[in-house]
Amino acid sequence: MPTFTAHDGTLLAYRVLGDGDPVVCVPGGPADSRYLGDLGGLSEHHRLIVPDLRGTGRSAVPEDPSSYRCDRLAEDVEALREHLGLPVMDLLAHSAGANIATQYTARRPANVRRLALITPGARAVGIPITAETRRELARLRQDEPWFPSAFAALEAITDGTGSDWEAIAPFFYGRWDAPAERHHAAGRPDNMEAVALFAAEGAFDPEGTRAALTACEVPVLLLAGEFDLNSPPPTVTEFGSLLPHSTLVVQPGAGHYPWIDDAGRFVAATSAFLGLGD
To answer: What is the pLDDT of residues 47-71, one digit of tens each?
Structure first.
Protein backbone atom coordinates (compact mmCIF):
# COMPACT_ATOMS: atom_id res chain seq x y z
CA MET A 1 0.00 0.00 0.00
CA PRO A 2 1.60 3.32 -1.04
CA THR A 3 2.23 6.05 1.51
CA PHE A 4 2.99 9.77 1.70
CA THR A 5 4.15 12.06 4.47
CA ALA A 6 1.86 14.74 5.85
CA HIS A 7 3.19 18.21 6.56
CA ASP A 8 3.62 17.33 10.26
CA GLY A 9 5.58 14.17 9.42
CA THR A 10 2.77 11.64 9.96
CA LEU A 11 2.99 8.73 7.52
CA LEU A 12 -0.32 8.27 5.72
CA ALA A 13 -1.43 5.42 3.47
CA TYR A 14 -3.67 5.32 0.42
CA ARG A 15 -5.11 2.81 -2.03
CA VAL A 16 -5.22 3.08 -5.83
CA LEU A 17 -8.08 1.35 -7.63
CA GLY A 18 -8.70 1.24 -11.37
CA ASP A 19 -7.36 3.24 -14.29
CA GLY A 20 -8.15 6.49 -16.01
CA ASP A 21 -8.30 10.06 -14.76
CA PRO A 22 -7.53 10.25 -11.03
CA VAL A 23 -10.17 11.08 -8.43
CA VAL A 24 -9.09 11.62 -4.83
CA CYS A 25 -11.77 10.04 -2.60
CA VAL A 26 -12.00 11.24 1.01
CA PRO A 27 -13.76 8.80 3.36
CA GLY A 28 -16.04 9.71 6.22
CA GLY A 29 -16.06 8.45 9.76
CA PRO A 30 -13.25 8.95 10.58
CA ALA A 31 -13.15 5.28 9.59
CA ASP A 32 -11.02 2.84 7.65
CA SER A 33 -11.51 3.80 4.00
CA ARG A 34 -12.15 0.16 3.03
CA TYR A 35 -15.87 0.71 3.60
CA LEU A 36 -15.88 2.72 0.35
CA GLY A 37 -14.84 -0.39 -1.59
CA ASP A 38 -14.51 0.62 -5.24
CA LEU A 39 -17.58 2.87 -4.93
CA GLY A 40 -19.86 0.46 -6.71
CA GLY A 41 -17.58 0.05 -9.71
CA LEU A 42 -16.61 3.69 -10.19
CA SER A 43 -13.05 2.36 -10.45
CA GLU A 44 -13.96 0.91 -13.86
CA HIS A 45 -14.13 4.47 -15.17
CA HIS A 46 -11.68 6.42 -13.03
CA ARG A 47 -8.50 5.84 -11.04
CA LEU A 48 -9.63 6.13 -7.44
CA ILE A 49 -7.03 7.39 -4.98
CA VAL A 50 -8.42 6.62 -1.53
CA PRO A 51 -6.48 7.83 1.52
CA ASP A 52 -6.80 6.38 4.99
CA LEU A 53 -7.35 9.34 7.28
CA ARG A 54 -4.68 9.70 9.97
CA GLY A 55 -5.10 7.16 12.74
CA THR A 56 -7.35 4.91 10.63
CA GLY A 57 -6.69 1.94 8.36
CA ARG A 58 -2.98 1.70 7.62
CA SER A 59 -2.19 5.35 8.32
CA ALA A 60 -0.11 6.17 11.37
CA VAL A 61 -1.46 7.59 14.61
CA PRO A 62 -0.23 11.20 14.84
CA GLU A 63 1.88 12.45 17.72
CA ASP A 64 -0.45 15.44 18.12
CA PRO A 65 -4.06 14.31 18.73
CA SER A 66 -5.37 17.78 17.87
CA SER A 67 -4.46 17.01 14.27
CA TYR A 68 -7.58 14.80 14.13
CA ARG A 69 -9.60 18.00 13.81
CA CYS A 70 -11.48 18.37 10.55
CA ASP A 71 -9.72 21.58 9.54
CA ARG A 72 -6.34 19.94 10.11
CA LEU A 73 -7.32 16.91 8.04
CA ALA A 74 -7.87 19.22 5.08
CA GLU A 75 -4.12 19.83 5.09
CA ASP A 76 -3.56 16.09 4.58
CA VAL A 77 -5.53 16.38 1.33
CA GLU A 78 -3.12 19.05 0.18
CA ALA A 79 -0.13 16.89 1.13
CA LEU A 80 -1.59 14.03 -0.93
CA ARG A 81 -2.15 16.29 -3.94
CA GLU A 82 1.45 17.46 -3.74
CA HIS A 83 2.67 13.86 -3.39
CA LEU A 84 0.71 12.81 -6.48
CA GLY A 85 1.99 15.78 -8.48
CA LEU A 86 -1.50 16.88 -9.52
CA PRO A 87 -1.73 20.57 -10.47
CA VAL A 88 -5.50 20.29 -10.03
CA MET A 89 -7.60 17.34 -8.94
CA ASP A 90 -11.08 15.93 -9.01
CA LEU A 91 -12.15 15.47 -5.41
CA LEU A 92 -14.89 13.15 -4.12
CA ALA A 93 -15.90 12.91 -0.48
CA HIS A 94 -18.45 10.91 1.49
CA SER A 95 -20.35 11.78 4.66
CA ALA A 96 -18.10 13.49 7.25
CA GLY A 97 -15.35 13.50 4.63
CA ALA A 98 -17.36 16.15 2.81
CA ASN A 99 -16.56 18.54 5.66
CA ILE A 100 -12.87 17.96 4.97
CA ALA A 101 -13.24 18.40 1.21
CA THR A 102 -15.47 21.45 1.61
CA GLN A 103 -12.95 23.22 3.82
CA TYR A 104 -10.14 22.25 1.45
CA THR A 105 -12.01 23.65 -1.54
CA ALA A 106 -12.89 26.85 0.31
CA ARG A 107 -9.21 27.38 1.05
CA ARG A 108 -7.70 26.22 -2.23
CA PRO A 109 -10.32 26.42 -5.01
CA ALA A 110 -7.62 26.71 -7.67
CA ASN A 111 -6.48 23.17 -6.82
CA VAL A 112 -9.90 21.56 -7.39
CA ARG A 113 -11.28 20.89 -10.86
CA ARG A 114 -14.52 19.25 -9.75
CA LEU A 115 -15.96 18.36 -6.35
CA ALA A 116 -18.40 15.49 -5.76
CA LEU A 117 -20.02 15.42 -2.30
CA ILE A 118 -21.75 12.11 -1.63
CA THR A 119 -24.43 12.15 1.10
CA PRO A 120 -22.42 14.99 2.62
CA GLY A 121 -22.07 16.15 6.17
CA ALA A 122 -22.83 19.87 6.46
CA ARG A 123 -21.16 20.92 9.70
CA ALA A 124 -18.47 22.81 7.80
CA VAL A 125 -21.14 25.18 6.50
CA GLY A 126 -23.20 25.26 9.69
CA ILE A 127 -26.44 23.68 8.47
CA PRO A 128 -28.26 22.04 11.41
CA ILE A 129 -30.48 18.97 11.08
CA THR A 130 -33.50 18.92 13.37
CA ALA A 131 -34.78 15.84 15.14
CA GLU A 132 -38.14 16.29 13.43
CA THR A 133 -36.50 16.26 10.00
CA ARG A 134 -34.95 12.90 10.82
CA ARG A 135 -38.23 11.56 12.20
CA GLU A 136 -40.17 12.63 9.10
CA LEU A 137 -37.65 10.91 6.87
CA ALA A 138 -37.67 7.79 9.03
CA ARG A 139 -41.45 7.51 8.74
CA LEU A 140 -41.06 6.88 5.02
CA ARG A 141 -39.83 3.41 6.03
CA GLN A 142 -42.80 2.56 8.24
CA ASP A 143 -43.76 -0.49 6.16
CA GLU A 144 -40.39 -2.18 6.76
CA PRO A 145 -40.45 -5.12 9.21
CA TRP A 146 -37.63 -3.63 11.27
CA PHE A 147 -39.28 -0.20 11.53
CA PRO A 148 -41.00 -0.37 14.97
CA SER A 149 -37.86 -1.21 16.97
CA ALA A 150 -35.60 1.03 14.88
CA PHE A 151 -37.97 4.00 15.14
CA ALA A 152 -38.30 3.55 18.89
CA ALA A 153 -34.52 3.65 19.18
CA LEU A 154 -34.40 6.75 16.96
CA GLU A 155 -36.99 8.49 19.13
CA ALA A 156 -34.93 7.73 22.23
CA ILE A 157 -31.73 9.03 20.62
CA THR A 158 -33.33 12.25 19.39
CA ASP A 159 -34.99 12.78 22.77
CA GLY A 160 -31.67 12.30 24.55
CA THR A 161 -32.88 9.26 26.48
CA GLY A 162 -31.19 6.50 24.49
CA SER A 163 -28.01 5.62 22.61
CA ASP A 164 -28.71 2.37 20.77
CA TRP A 165 -27.09 3.39 17.50
CA GLU A 166 -26.93 -0.20 16.27
CA ALA A 167 -30.73 -0.43 16.34
CA ILE A 168 -31.11 2.43 13.85
CA ALA A 169 -28.59 1.06 11.33
CA PRO A 170 -31.34 -0.06 8.88
CA PHE A 171 -32.31 3.57 8.34
CA PHE A 172 -28.94 4.21 6.68
CA TYR A 173 -29.50 1.76 3.82
CA GLY A 174 -32.09 1.65 1.08
CA ARG A 175 -32.46 -2.09 1.73
CA TRP A 176 -31.64 -3.74 5.03
CA ASP A 177 -30.49 -7.06 3.63
CA ALA A 178 -27.47 -9.33 4.06
CA PRO A 179 -25.08 -7.17 1.96
CA ALA A 180 -26.14 -4.08 3.90
CA GLU A 181 -25.62 -5.85 7.22
CA ARG A 182 -22.15 -7.01 6.15
CA HIS A 183 -21.22 -3.52 4.97
CA HIS A 184 -22.41 -1.99 8.23
CA ALA A 185 -20.48 -4.50 10.33
CA ALA A 186 -17.26 -3.87 8.39
CA GLY A 187 -17.50 -0.08 8.44
CA ARG A 188 -17.52 0.75 12.13
CA PRO A 189 -14.86 3.29 13.20
CA ASP A 190 -12.21 1.75 15.45
CA ASN A 191 -10.28 4.87 16.50
CA MET A 192 -12.71 6.57 18.84
CA GLU A 193 -10.22 9.31 19.71
CA ALA A 194 -10.17 10.34 16.04
CA VAL A 195 -13.97 10.34 16.00
CA ALA A 196 -14.21 12.38 19.20
CA LEU A 197 -11.69 15.02 18.13
CA PHE A 198 -12.87 15.38 14.52
CA ALA A 199 -15.30 18.14 15.54
CA ALA A 200 -13.30 19.58 18.45
CA GLU A 201 -13.38 23.30 19.12
CA GLY A 202 -11.89 25.17 16.16
CA ALA A 203 -12.60 22.39 13.66
CA PHE A 204 -15.15 24.45 11.74
CA ASP A 205 -15.52 28.06 10.63
CA PRO A 206 -18.98 28.00 9.03
CA GLU A 207 -19.19 31.72 8.36
CA GLY A 208 -15.80 31.89 6.68
CA THR A 209 -16.33 28.68 4.74
CA ARG A 210 -19.74 29.80 3.46
CA ALA A 211 -18.32 33.15 2.36
CA ALA A 212 -15.54 31.45 0.44
CA LEU A 213 -17.90 28.98 -1.22
CA THR A 214 -20.29 31.65 -2.49
CA ALA A 215 -17.42 32.98 -4.60
CA CYS A 216 -16.22 29.53 -5.65
CA GLU A 217 -16.19 28.69 -9.37
CA VAL A 218 -15.64 24.94 -8.85
CA PRO A 219 -18.44 22.73 -10.25
CA VAL A 220 -19.96 20.70 -7.41
CA LEU A 221 -22.14 17.58 -7.41
CA LEU A 222 -24.22 16.98 -4.30
CA LEU A 223 -25.66 13.48 -4.28
CA ALA A 224 -28.25 12.70 -1.60
CA GLY A 225 -30.02 9.45 -0.75
CA GLU A 226 -33.81 9.59 -0.69
CA PHE A 227 -33.97 7.89 2.72
CA ASP A 228 -30.71 9.13 4.28
CA LEU A 229 -31.19 10.14 7.92
CA ASN A 230 -27.58 11.27 8.25
CA SER A 231 -27.69 13.73 5.34
CA PRO A 232 -31.37 14.34 4.58
CA PRO A 233 -32.23 15.60 1.08
CA PRO A 234 -33.52 18.97 2.40
CA THR A 235 -30.19 19.54 4.14
CA VAL A 236 -28.21 18.62 1.02
CA THR A 237 -30.46 20.91 -1.04
CA GLU A 238 -29.74 23.81 1.32
CA PHE A 239 -26.03 23.00 1.10
CA GLY A 240 -26.23 23.21 -2.69
CA SER A 241 -27.85 26.65 -2.50
CA LEU A 242 -24.56 28.00 -1.12
CA LEU A 243 -22.64 26.91 -4.20
CA PRO A 244 -23.03 28.92 -7.41
CA HIS A 245 -22.13 25.99 -9.69
CA SER A 246 -23.81 23.04 -8.00
CA THR A 247 -25.82 20.11 -9.31
CA LEU A 248 -28.15 18.21 -6.97
CA VAL A 249 -29.00 14.54 -7.49
CA VAL A 250 -31.32 12.68 -5.12
CA GLN A 251 -30.87 8.96 -5.69
CA PRO A 252 -34.23 7.17 -5.34
CA GLY A 253 -34.39 4.38 -2.79
CA ALA A 254 -30.93 5.12 -1.42
CA GLY A 255 -29.68 5.69 2.09
CA HIS A 256 -26.32 6.95 3.30
CA TYR A 257 -24.32 4.56 1.10
CA PRO A 258 -25.85 4.96 -2.39
CA TRP A 259 -23.22 2.81 -4.12
CA ILE A 260 -24.38 -0.11 -1.96
CA ASP A 261 -28.09 0.48 -2.63
CA ASP A 262 -27.87 0.89 -6.42
CA ALA A 263 -24.35 0.80 -7.79
CA GLY A 264 -25.38 1.31 -11.41
CA ARG A 265 -27.40 4.44 -10.71
CA PHE A 266 -24.69 5.83 -8.44
CA VAL A 267 -21.86 5.25 -10.90
CA ALA A 268 -23.86 6.69 -13.80
CA ALA A 269 -24.57 9.94 -11.94
CA THR A 270 -21.08 10.32 -10.53
CA SER A 271 -19.25 9.48 -13.75
CA ALA A 272 -21.43 11.84 -15.75
CA PHE A 273 -20.42 14.65 -13.44
CA LEU A 274 -16.75 13.74 -13.33
CA GLY A 275 -16.65 13.84 -17.10
CA LEU A 276 -16.47 10.25 -18.25
CA GLY A 277 -14.27 10.11 -21.33
CA ASP A 278 -13.04 13.69 -21.29
So the answer is: 999 999 999 999 999 999 999 999 9
Domain spans of the chain? Answer: 3-126+191-274
Alpha helices (H) in 199-255, listed in sequence order: 206-214, 233-241
Report the distance separating Cα 124 and Cα 106, nearest Å. 10
Residue 272: count of CB within 10 angstroms of its CB: 12
Kind of pairing, strands 11-17 and 47-51?
Answer: antiparallel
Cβ atoms 79, 4 nearer than 8 A:
yes
Contact 55, 189 (CB under 8 A): no
Phi-psi region of 55 (alpha: psi -120 to 50; beta: other; left: phi over 0): left
Quick: pLDDT tens for 70-119.
999 999 999 999 999 999 999 999 999 999 999 999 999 999 999 999 99
Report how far residue 212's alpha carbon sits from residue 17's, in angstroms, rounded to the nearest whole number: 32
Which region holds residue 52: left if phi is over 0, alpha if psi is between -120 and 50, else beta? beta
Query: Is pLDDT at 162 greater than 80 in this prediction?
Result: yes
| pTM over the 0.90 mark | yes
Per residue in 147-157, pLDDT (tens digit) is: 999 999 999 99
Q: Is there a contact between 262 and 233 (Cβ–Cβ < 8 Å)?
A: no
Instruction: Give the architecture-level CATH label for domain 3-126+191-274.
Output: 3-Layer(aba) Sandwich (3.40)
